[in-house]
Each structure stands twice: as structure tokens, then as C-alpha cells.
Design a protein that fits this description.
heterodimer, A: about 550 residues, mainly alpha, PX Domain, Substrate Binding Domain Of Dnak, Chain:A, Domain 2, 16 helices, 3 strands, about 5% strand, B: about 425 residues, 2 domains, 10 helices, about 70% helix, disordered N terminus
Amino acid sequence: MMNHHDFQQDPDDDDGVMESLLLHDEPSNPLQPPPNPNPNPKPDHHHPLLPSTQSPKSPTTFNSFLDPPSYAEAIFTSFDSFSSSSSNGTNHSHHHNRNTLTDELPSRSGSGSVSDYLYIFVSDPQKEQETSASLVPGAATTFYTYLITTRTDLPEFGSSTSEFAVRRRFRDVVTLSDRLAESYRGYFVPVRPDKSTVESQVMQKQEFVEQRRAAVEKYLRKLAAHPVIRRSEELRLFLEAKGRLPLQKSTDVASRMLDGAVKLPKQLFGSEVATAGELSEVVQPAKGGRDLLRIFKELKQSVTNDWGGSKPLVVEEDKEFLERKEKLVEFEQQLSGVSQQAESLVKHQQDMGETMGELGLAFVKLTKFETEEAIFDSQRTRASDMRNVATAAVKASRLYRELNTQTIKHLDKLHEYLGTMLAVNNAFADRASALLTVQTLSSELASLNSRIEKLEVASSKIFGGDKSRMRKIEELKEAIRVTENAKTCADREYERIKENNRSELERINKERHDDFLSMLRGFVVNQAGYAEKMAAVWEKLAEETTAYSKEAAEL
Amino acid sequence: MKMSTAPYDLEQQQQHQRSGVAASSQSPRSPSSSTPFLSVSVTDPVKLGNGVQAYISYRVITKTNFPEYQGPEKIVIRRYSDFVWLRDRLFEKYKGIFIPPLPEKSAVGVLKFHMFWFITAEKFRFSAEFIEMRRQALDLFVNRIASHHELQQSEDLRMFLQAEEETMERLRAQETGIFKKPSDLMQIFKDVQSKVSDVVLGKEKPVEESDPDYEKLKHYIFELENHLAEAQKHAYRLVKRHRELGQSLSDFGKAVKLLGASEGNSLGKAFSELGIKSEILSTKLQKEAHQILMNFEEPLKDYVRAVQSIKATIAERANSFRKQCQLAETVKLKEIDLKKMKGKGCIDLKSWQKLSANIMRQLKTESEQATKTFESIVRLMNEEIGRFQEQKTLDMGIAFHEFAKGQARLANDIAGAWRSLLPKLEACSAA
């Protein structure tokens, strides 16, 4: 019997006795969940082979007694799966990779109905040591690695089995994130979890590692849900490549400085012949360390943009984009407000449940007391009434806690979207920086041309030509050629990013509509369902005490 | 509790619930009937005076056919300290009877409880609320006295209900009652409890009854107060939680409405509807909070007060027992004393006999009186405790029923409001 199991967990015997008073006296034992087993995995269950993660420990034994049974979930998850299956018709592969908590894991044999799937699980954190080639000899840094298990039928994954696993550390996640940011400018690339070193000092190690594990899993799943990024080489390598992650880390500042020092004279004098490799650098935003000159020039350009009297030569002209952007900004603001209030709502629902539970417990004690000390029949009657009140309050308390667990899940969508807004802002920043590069190169070209003009005018005044000036003009013409090539590249890049922005905006607008609708529906159904259950509990108590209302009316 | 508009009816309703077993002797709706009845209302709280000396006055309306009373109706103005006077007089005169409890004197104690209410509007509402709660409690107090078969005969009650205000003021000033301050009451409790520790420390011989049933009762009463106080504390917190959740839902609704407005399309409309529903439910939560306060928390508080009143009676019984024992001791000692005096021979036999007889007669009368008083207290308490238990089962039953109804109503309202949104959401997804 499940309840005996619960009692054995109670360190405080008294409370266990208290609850037993409630439960054993009832022939039908309404506090025990019906024997309907929950077919779906528990919400915190990430991997079938893993033990389920602990729910946050509550201080009172009473609360542990009130752990929500799974039967209510069985009733309400039907709503969630209903809404997600109803949207199955649309973006097929996308939805299958939502990895929503009610998704059932496909069997290993691979059901034919699901294809192009990419499921990711993060588990088994382990401590590892790395003897670092650091200043302190023999010092070892410890870090945690996580087992990343992937299950997929996508063709680009070369693995012979549909399921494989690698070990990665958080640093690898950072690398992946950086590489994706570079390769997918303009896309709404999901934002990786924080490094949060401060928190890691404050939290218990266990808690922190678990938090990180969950965050990494969430992040990877978001990547797998993105229609473009899920097919990326970077992600594939991360998930599949055994041993060390074969992605180049962002080069550290020192070496970049060196590179920069070598390249700097070339940039200054603009005499080199542009190579394809160097052209591709134009495609990247100016990075700290190298491209010093480029940074200075782009900074100068952006100042000109902001403060200069003349408009830059190239401006953001896509009105539709600007409108959408503004709308998104407003959306983000409102969303943030709703998210805050949602958090507060959840907290107050939690408090309500707790207080109701404490009230129930107080009545349990009263019941026990009056029963034991009863001399008059009226006391026994009262004890029985109080027991009914206690039962109702305890049940209601449990319902509040379950309600809250579900509410948190639904309203979590809000937080997710706030995360998405970060990705959107990054994508818009990509666009802005690409535009800045184009503007800078335009200005550069304009200034080069005007210098040539001036020189030509000057040299034409000299009879027989001006050898030094002619040489200078040739150099400048060469610089123009290089710059024009670069500008072509930059233009292309800018257009590419613009297009990425546009397609992404369309994608998330559609998704957002569906997501929020399903969230609303889930929230409303949840609230209504639990309210109905609570009404039933209280109606029962009203019925049990109905004698008192009649008596009052009769007098 | 049916809420009817006529205040008279409401008073009647409340009285019906309060009177319990003793109600059968009254039929207040037929003032001209021959069965004796005494019906009282405490109404119309009005703030009088300024600043520090401000106080609340109440209209006390008495409808009766008791011969000693000025019938059929009399209205007087009373203030809280008048009620205290009545309680103290009854406590003194009717030892052994559980005097109905009074609500706490000032709002300060209550304010401390309410300290964490952060919204100014709440505070105002609470103070009007407090006044109303106190009025109800005072009304209950007087009616309980009026329906108690012994207490209703009290001359002090008649004074309270009938005397002119000036007379009342004079009486109040004369009061040399035991309960000048709450601290006096506390002192008595401490005396009762300190007796135990004194015995433990071996300070003095225990002058306590050795009745095991009575010991059990005392233990029961003291324990009961603790349990009830805890239940009442949580009931009060539940009221607060309803208010907080209501506020939270209201804020949530506002934020969701803003989001809906910025979205614009059908989804935006859905959000707006959600926001509106949230605000509606917020109001319902606030209402329910008030209901819980009045119909559930207050009866629990009343129960606690009643138990505290019983503790005062217990203390009184202990006093009386001690007095009885002391006087019995004194009689014995005096007899010995007088014998010694006789033996010493400093007084002639006849004078001694006269003196001795006078002294002993006086002492014996006192001793008998003390014994009678004590025995009367024991007898009355035995009667009272059974009645008390019955009354409390009834009172609590009503409170539980109202609580259940209120919660069920709230839950159904919530379910209804959310369900009504679903068709609108369906319309959105179809679009």
C-alpha cells in the first residue's frame, strides 16, 4: 500500500500517526490515489535508465506526505497530448523534436510514423580531473562531464546505430555555441546556458551539477528543434564525434593580437592583393584583438551614423522589418511583465496549498485530541466533524500542489520565449553589425574615390605628369579594387543575414501563435480541472455538515 | 447564514444560531406572546470623540416582555468598557458559570497580526472590518448572556440593558472588579499554573483539589486552547492567502491584458479575455477571504476566547477551594487557640464561653459559606461543561458548513470562469 510506504519515510513519528488517524479510519481511503498506473514517464524523467530526479526537499514531513500522486497527471496530460497532436499536421519534423514532457519516447525499433527525429538526453554527470599545464606544477583542475546520448534517424549522422553517446564538458557547450553564432548569423540561434560561476560557488555541488545538466539538455533540445541548426555540422560533431570535440575554440586574445600585428601593416597600407581567405574575414564581424583597424573604422562609421549630419550611404530600409522589430520589442516587454506576474501567481498558489495543508494538520491534531479526551457525545460528534474538515483541507492542499506543478509547466513557455527573445536580439545584432560593415566599406570607397579625384586634379595641373602622384593613384585604384571586392562580399553577407532574419521571423511568428495558444489552453484547462476537483472536495464536506445548516434554519 | 436585507432579521438569524439549546424558551418574532423572551441587538457602531480619546459607541436594542424590564423595547448607547463592566460583574456574581467571552479590547493586538498587509486600501478595509467583527462579537456576547437561564436573571444585565447613560457611567467608575486590565487576568492564570511549579519546587503544600476527573478537565481545557489557537492561526493565514492570491491574479490579469493588446490578432483577444477572467476571479477571491474571516476564523477565535473564559472560571474555582481550605484550617486553629486561652486562665469561663461562641459562630458561618460557594461552583461547572461542549459542536458545525459552502462556491466560480474561455480559444485556433 502506497501510504505505508509514505509513512516509513516520515522521520517524525507523531505526524505519521496523525495522518494514519485520517487514513486508516476511512474505509474507502480517499487520500490514496486510485490504482491506475501512470503510463507516461514522470515529468522530471529525462532518460529511461536514469533514476528520476528528486523534487526539491520540503522541510516538513507533512509535505512529504502530500507528494502529488500520479493519477491526476494521467488525467491532465491527456489535454497536453491532445493539443500537441492536433498540431502534428504542420511542421512535422519540428514538432517531433519539441521533446515536450508528454512526448512518448519512440520504441527502439523505430515506429514508422515518426521520421527525421533527433532526440537528445544529457545524463550521468561525472567528475574528471585534468592535470593542467599551468603555472602550479602538479595541480589538477576538476570538471564535470556529461553523457550526451542521441537518438536519431537523420542521414548525416554516420553512426551505424540509431543511438550513440559521447562525453562532453561544459566548455565544449560554450565552443559549440560560439561556433554556431559565427556560422548562423541572422538566425535565431538558441542561447546557451550561463557559465554562472558565482552560483556555482554558492550552491551545493550536487544541486549545481544537476541544474547544469538540465540546462544543457534543454539547450541541446532547443538546437535540435531549430529546423536549420539541427542539420548543422557543428551540432553533428558535438553529438557524434568521439573523443575531444573537433571544433576550433575561439582563439584566445593573445594569438589574435599577434595575427592582428601581422595583418595590421597590410591593412594600413592596403597594398595586399585580396585573397579568398582574407575576404572571408570581411564576412565576420570585427573581432577584438585582430582587425584593430577595422574596428576603429567601423566605430568611426557608427559614430558618424549616430551623430553625423549626413545620412550613411546605406541604411536599413526594410520597413516591414522595422515594424516587426518594434512589435517584437513591445512583445518582449509585455511578455516579461506577464512572466513576472506568473511567477508571483505560482508562488501564491503554492502558499495557499501550504497553508491549507497546515490547517488540515491542525484539525487532524484537534480530532485526535477530542477523540482521546472525549467524555461527552458532543465531543465525539465534533471530533468526527473535525476529521471531515481535516480530510477536505488535506485533499485541497494536495490539489493545490498538483495544480501548481502543472501551472509551472504551462507558464514555463513564457520563460522559454523570453529566452528566444535573446536569440532574436542576437540575430538583429548580427544584421546591424553586417550593415555597419557595408556602411564602413561604402564610406571607405567614397573616400578613396575622392582622394583619387583630388590627386588626378592635382596631377593634371602638372605638365608631363607627376610620377609620384601617378604611382599613388595606381595604389589607390588597387585599394579600391580590393575594397570593392570586400564590399561585394559584405553586401552579400548582409543580404543573407537579412533573409535569415526574415525567414526566422516568419517561423517564430507562426510557432509563437501555436505555442501560446496551446499554453493558454493548457493553463485554462488545468485551472478549471483542478477547481472542479476542489469543488467536489468541499461539496462533500458541505454535505457531511449539512445537518448544521438545517438546524440553524429550524431554530 | 442566510443574508437577508433587514438587519432585524439578521440579528434574529444570528441569535437562532447562538441560542442553541436554550432557544426554545424564546420566540422573538411574537413580542406579544406570553412566553418570556429577552432579545438584544448590538448595532450601529459610531466613532465618537477625538484623537487619543476616540472610542466606538454602539446602540443596544432590547426587546423583551420580562416584567422587571422597561418593555417592549428599549434603546441605550454603550461602549466597550460597559461590556467589560458587565462581564466583570457577572464573573464575580456567578462563579462557576462560564461567562461568555468578550472580543479583544483594542485593534493594536489585531494590527500586529495584520502587520504584513501591504496595501493601504486593505488597511482601511480591515479597520472597518475590525469594527464590524467586534460589533458582531459584542452582539453574540450579550445574546449568550440573555439566553443563559441563570445569567439572564442578573440585575447587572438589566442595568446594562436599561440604565441611562449617566447611570452607566457612574457604575463603570465605581467598578472595583478583578479584571481592570488584561494583565490581571493573566496574573490569575499564572497563579493557577504557578501552583504546579511551586509544588514541584517543594515551596508549599499543595492546596489543590484531588479530584481526578477535574484534573482531567483542567488538562483538557489547557490543551484545547493550544490546539484551537493553532487552528485559528492557520485559518487566519488562509484568509491572508486568499487575499494575496486574489491580488496576484489581478496583477497577472492586467499584464496579460497588456500582452493581448500588443498582439492584436485573435490570439491577442484570447489573452485579453484571459486577463478579464483573471480580474473577475480576483474579486471573487477577495470576497471569499472576507467570508472565511467572518464565518470560519472568527468562530474559531470565539472558541479560543470561550476556552480562556473557562480558564478564568477554573482559576476562580481554585481560589474558592483554597479559601475553603484556609477557612477550615482557621476554624481548627481558632478552636485550639481558644482552648489554650481557656487553659491559661486569663479570662473567666462565662466571658470565655460568650467570646468563644461568637468567634466560632462567625468563623463557622464564613467557613460554611466558603464551602457552599465552592460546592456551588463545582456543581455549576459540571452543568456548564456539558452544555458548553454541545454548544461548541453546534457552533463549529455551522462554521465548518459555511466554510465548505464558501470554498465550494469559489471553486465552482473559478471552474466556470475558466471553462467559459475554452470556446473562445477554439475559435482562435480555427482562425
